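hiii, so i know i said id send this last week but things got crazy w the move. better late than never?? heres the sequnce for the chain we talked about at the cafe, plus the structure i predicted for it. fair warning i was half asleep when i ran it
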Amino acid sequence: MKHLLILALSCICVSCISVRTDVTATKSEAKVISPEDNNLAEAAIRLVLEQQIKAWNDHDLEGFMQGYWKSDELKFYGKSGLTLGWDATLERYRKNYPTKAESGILSFNIKDISRIEGNSYWVMGAFHLERNIGNADGIFMLIFKKINGQWKIVADMSC
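okay and structure toks below
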């Protein structure tokens, strides 16, 4: 029993040291972003969103999806719940917007673009779909991350 207690305490101590090392390493690797870098990131993110609008308005859903991280780890959270992965997100769009009549003309009203940390930013805004079958409006929060030199949406919460 005494040996079991010593073993358990040893494991806890090693875990705490490991966590402390990870936190310290992360803080020491933090990069200071200059206002110019921040402005360049924001402009690049806005360009991705403009390209998405153009693709959407051409009913090019694959083109629209180019703004998203092509990964099984992509997360989309909407009114029907959490969708995981790029392919599943594309299928969700195809199902909900099968024709130009459903997709309509998209516009965004960007309210905020802020750096979270490193090369990650959030974008908060509103969307509007102008459609003959009835307009649709909502809000969104996107998480962008620079991956392999390109800004990609890694998480999307729209409602």
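btw The longest strand covers residues 105-117. thought thatd interest u
miss u guys!!
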